[in-house]
Amino acid sequence: MCYTQQVHPLNPTPRPFLAPRPGGQRKEQRPMNYSAYAHSRPATLAIPLLLGSILLLNGCLSTREWRDQADERASQWLQQAQQEVNGKTEPIIVESPADTLRRRLLLDQKLQLTDAASLGITDLADTERWQNDQHLRPFTDDLLAAKSVWNTAGPLALSLVDAIVIAARHNRDFQSQKDSLFQTALTLDLEDHQFQNTFTGMLSSTLSSSHNGDRRNHGLTNDATLGVKRNFKNGIELTSSLSVDLVKMLTGDRGSSWGILGDASINIPLLRGAGEFVAAESLTQAQRNLVYAVRDFEQYKRGFIVRIANSYLGVLQGGQRIINQEENYKRVVTSTRRSRRMADAGLLPEYQFDQAVQDELRARDNWVGARLAYEASLDAFKILLGLPPDAKVEPLTSELDALQLAGQTLGGDGEITDYSKVPAADAPVVLVDIDDENTGPYEISADKAVAIALKNRPDLRNALEKIEDAQRDALIAEDSLRAELTIGGRASIGESRSLGQADSEDGSFRATRGTYSAPLYLNLPFERTRERNAYRNSLINLEKTVRNFQRDEDAIKEAVRGKTRNLLENRSRIVIQRQAVRLAERRVKSTDLLLQAGRAAIRDVLEAQNALLSAQNSLISAVVSYRINELELQRDLGVLAVAADGAWQEPSLEDFD
Q1: What average pLDDT does this structure show over 643-650?
Q2: pTM of the complete model
């Protein structure tokens, strides 16, 4: 900060103002070299101005520039971790799109909403303090452009691929996982910053007033400080600063003076806390935490795919149950009408007609329940996607047709119970085990599945590497038990100035007049109770970490072996229920004909119809369960390839040895 001196109108050379002393006497004016004064004063003003310019230029970043800087650093760390884990990189976007499918559905289908926040963060109203353009940077999502054929004003039919892509953009839990991953990268950047040059700058101006017993004095102090600090990974700490003081009395003789002070210090640990292994532990752990987070996100994405597929196919299964219940309801109504006519003709007892009516009521109740259950599962599915539950969205029924078609080839088309040739009644019964013919592509042996999982599961890799973290933690705790020996150094050149030194000469900045010191600190390990307990706890934590790894390993083995059994069981159930449907259809036809001929009771017809309904529902359940188990096995093996944008691919297990 600069100030203006008094200048005589006829003599432009600046001179100090001489205040009258008590009694009319003037204070004796000290000799002064005006030539030196005139040349030193511009230099005096230039130094704080230069420092101030440096501070302003380096410290005045806009909000958007600070944000972009943070995004750039976090993205760099993420890409490094992704390259290490996956051998490739992908962007992790944490901003909301400018326009979303949810927003379009709310607007185009005129759905109910509470506030503009229902549409999205970019629709928040600007206020006196908040402006969206200043704080938000929404990107343009290509989802709506890629699916421009979607008519969001009407019912929206989604394939499984579409549903997963939409969920990757709108599901709140999925977005929270990406946020957490991004924040882990920011944490690593902060730890890395601890080992970078850290610049500080401060400008201050103080106006003070004090009373010395005779009169009140006013003064102005201007300070400018530029400092830099660096912590090295080997434990060395280096600090330096340059300060310029400019002081001036505003009363009395209005004396002024400036000072400049350079200060530098260094601390070098020689025992406790020395070396990169110990000093850079926080950075090392932050780097490993980001790698763990990337691996966890990879496994989370696989589980996310299974969740969406499970919900999607569950809705389709519920829709098929409605169809089955509706067909059964119609069959029961037809049987009830026939029984009424036969009872009126005296061909059927009245109580059998009552049985038919009871079954019709039961069929209606099941039909209504199936419809309501479908609506509930559809609402839950839309919530899982991150879409409004009242939006007109439903899955494509052709997806289930394709799944049923693929399931027809599983297990072959033979009859399990073949009685074309009946053995003797006393012949021994030989049970035929499940064969390995016409199996699915993911039906592999349990041993091979376990081997693939132990090699590819990223969360198991995390559990294993956390043992190294626990070992490192124990070694660092051991280091804290040692004596602390630190050698330091400090150099101070120049002179600072306070307001009381306004009448002094300007400060000198000469190395020959500097102050230098080299201290040596030794802290003997007489008291290390806290460190002792920390070391013991670190060994206990190591034991726990090893047990946790063993637990995770066994859990993965159990899950993978269970999924291979589930695939085998579901394939067997598909074959059984496929034959059960054929038998039930024949049984319904035959009992109906027998009822018309008077050779069967209405109970036989009703039981055959219920058996057909049960077989149809069981068949579709087995087909859906088989498909879900395929995806779950790929998830548990750690081989399902999923991108952050929802794109996914099922690999061939033949590529894994």
Answers
A1: 91
A2: 0.85
Domain span holding position 173: 63-191
The strand pairing partners of 207, in sequence order, are 220
Say yes or no to pLDDT of 16 above 60. Answer: no
Which residue, among 616, 652, 629, has the nearest Cα to 568 in the 3D structure? 629
pLDDT of amino acid 31:
42
Is there a domain that residue 54 lies in? Answer: no
Of the candidates 142, 162, 191, which is a domain's last residue? 191
Q: Contact 295/85 with Cβ under 8 angstroms?
A: yes
Which residue, 146, 173, 191, sits at the end of a domain?
191
Cα–Cα distance for residue pair 185/180, rounded to 1 Å? 9
**Least confident stretch, 132-136, 170-174, 411-415, 510-514:** 411-415
Assess whether 252 and 225 both reside in one domain.
Answer: yes
Q: Give the 3-state secondary structure of 598-612.
A: CCCCHHHHHHHHHHH
437 lies in some domain: no
Q: Specify if 510 maps to a domain.
A: yes
Q: Count how many domains the chain has.
A: 2
**Cα 228 to Cα 239: distance, rounded to the nearest angstrom:** 6
Residues 6+ apart with CB under 8 A from 521: 484, 485, 486, 487, 488
- Asked whether residue 231 falls in the same domain as residue 131, the answer is no
Q: Which of 92, 191, 44, 7 is nearest to 644 (CA)?
A: 92
φ, ψ for residue 7 (rounded to 5)? -130, 125
Q: Is residue 652 domain-resident? A: no
Q: pLDDT by residue (tens digit) across 437-469?
A: 788 899 999 999 999 999 999 999 999 999 999
| Cα–Cα distance for residue pair 620/267, rounded to 1 Å | 73
Q: Is the pLDDT of residue 599 over 80?
A: yes
